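During the reporting period the student researcher (J.K.) took over the structure-prediction task from the postdoctoral fellow and processed the backlog of single-chain submissions. One of the processed entries is reproduced below for the supervisory committee.
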Amino acid sequence: MTPTHHRFASFDRFASFAAALLLTGAAGCGAMAQPAAQDSVDLRILAINDFHGNLLPPPGGIAIHDPANPEKLVQVPAGGAEQMATLVKQLRDGHANSIFVAAGDLIGASPFLSAMFHDEPTIESLSMMGLAIASVGNHEFDEGRAELLRMQNGGCHPVDGCQGPHPFLGAKFQYLAASTIDVATDKPILPAYAIREFSGIPVGFIGLTLRGTPNLVSPPGVAGLEFRDEAETVNRLVPELKAKGVEAIVVLIHEGGFPTGDYNACPGISGPIVDIVGRLDHAVDVVITGHTHRAYNCKIDGRLVTSGDKYGTLVTAIDLKLDRNSRDVISAQADNVIVRQDLAKDPAQSQLIADYDRVAGPLAARPAGAVTAALSRLPNTAGESVLGDVVADAQLDATRAQDRGGAVIAFTNPGGIRMEIALKDDGNVSYGDVFASQPFRNQLVTLTLSGAQIKQALEQQWQDPARPRILQVSRDFSYAWDGAAEPGNRIAAREMRLGGEPIDPAKSYRVTINAFLAVGGDGFTAFKSGTEPRIGVYDVDALDAYFRAHSPLAPTAADRIRRLN
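J.K. obtained the following structure tokens:
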């Protein structure tokens, strides 16, 4: 999780610093005795992860340590497909052997310009940049297996049809999904690996997503699929690659870690990737990661492990030296390079964005309402956020009427709230701003649950103790949780209240959630026990209606959830 307080400064102060970083690299693997130049081949791998359809520079850019005071964080403007395309070209210049790859979540949870078209613009943009290979991430499954395959192969959306300015032809790059197995065939739904040859030396790229994907996406979207152990999957493929003459192996995995240092360093890294890398066959030379939205440049278990932040703010430049005789990697180093805003805009990317914006622009610009201050998605110590309260209230308002569900409580998952509602100069909020905060277009579902089932659902917030998912709750409902209690017994039943009255375990309540939660998404299986479902409007439309009805909106007190210990 990124720090909750950042200091802002102009980019000019850091321009020379960032430019200097372009010329330097952070060592990945230790230097080794080098053979003569004619006995080795240089390969540059450029990598990104967690792009999430950010064709335009994301608000806030990237947080880095202040060069003048490393104890402070500052925000540096960064990102955007126009600038990234230029940087990719620059980083490839002068390198006879290069390849552009990605480690998942290129699409999904995207801003309006991409999400409006089911991320077709992002697939086109990255294809134009020369992306060659990408592992699938959990968000590639947001709209299910069939939609992922459409992203690969092209064609019109099965419901919305062809909305874009031209036909969607699919990705020119190859998605890899080594650990995502079709149970009916016992085979991956996409290729497990790709082999590319550089000056006569084959290099294998294995791509896979995290094992926990079924807990992060809507269950129907991954029905009939099995997500197998990451390290075991890779290790089973190593002999197959070696039999094909491959000694240099790069893993693209949508799983990551949590470092404590700056974006081009790796002190104190923790998280799932440490265990995974430690279990990989030592034939694996480089591991390119993602998922945690962090930036790092590491050496773990003797090999280079990298991650490039999120939203296209960084491109990781990895330089390998391959031995012609052994065909293996003999040295590796990397540099996370900021996609600076003073880079020239790539004309082809600008044209692509303009083409889609002509279609999407009028709808995105439509006024939705106003705010008196920014509505932050960052949680307090109890797990509650200002924007989370607003979203839950909007969903309650949309389903409170008897003919719309008769809801008295609404819950929403924090992972579905993707972007804060920023305070602009005039305070106005557009539909595009609203869409950016709720990009999944989940329909609302109102169910009947007992008080005991509500408590059970709240207890499931800590199924993964390392990454609890605190549900955001609507007005008039409140509860307290005990941070010192054991999982399964953290909710203080006597503190669960609706309108000031205790929740009765035996009483029935009409509860609104989104369709993702209704089918057990994020592991909230208790919601699957709900009865009398009533399907409502899309979540983003509920929030849009709430803004139009209640603007200007001010931040709430965020006091509906209390932490006891």
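The committee noted the following: The first strand starts at residue 7 and ends at 8.
J.K. will present the remaining backlog at the next meeting.
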